[in-house]
Amino acid sequence: MGDTRVGATGANADLSSTDLTDVRADTDRAAAGDGRVRVESSPVGPIVRPPDASDLVILYLHGDRQLSGSPESAVDLAERLALRTGAVVVCPRYRSSFPGALDDVHAVYSSCQARGPVALAGERLGAGLAASLLVRLRDMGAREPECAVLISALLDLTLDAPSLLFNAAADPGFDIDELRLHAARFAGGADRTNPLLSPLHANLHGLPPIQLLVAGTDPLLDDSLSFAARAAHSGVAVDLRVRPDAVSLHPESVTAMADFIQAWARAARP
Known about the structure:
Largest sheet: 9 strands, mixed
Number of helices: 8
Strand order of the largest sheet: 1-2-3-5-4-6-7-8-9
CATH class: Alpha Beta
Radius of gyration: 17 Å
CATH topology: Rossmann fold
Distance between the termini: 35 Å
Number of domains: 1
CATH superfamily: Alpha/Beta hydrolase fold, catalytic domain
């Protein structure tokens, strides 16, 4: 697999002035060589380009149990998603605290729009940031993405969901006290019910189509269930998929994401 390194940006860097318009200029050259997916390093994080890339860009926001991590951890999924959709997949870095993290993904989203239509996707905290970005764009009257996919989403940093306790035993790697520490660090002094920090508390009217993928044993299950119900009541097109456990969710997640994104990207075209 080719790996063209063109720069790097630290995890705590301010990406508000980031310019990704060169994505358009580089796409044909990057994808036209050996017919394989190309992974490039960019100032904002990895960019995955499939052969014969379409004009669609998927902005994929990584997430992990520590509410931090590296976008490089998402590259494997991004490669598979790029091949399934034919889209360029951008995996941006973002700062480890609010509101800087949201500002960073907003800046990259705006730059991605220079290339073409954009779909959002994310996991855990990244899914929460994707939902927060939808709310911010709607409130600003800005152009929204074609759709969004939220996987095992952390959507409420008050951490009051019953599933955090009920499903804890089903996930040996989950520690509610550790999550509380990480959430406090990420939120800083912000009100945990701030809708841009905890989008479950936001007005969800006027958002684009949203898919939520989650396991029934996930401690974050209730965030997805509650968000899906509130979004549906608000007139948002919602595709909620709950699988019995992570073992059954993960193998089909890329296919489900790709099908949803392609369907709504096609529907949005004139």
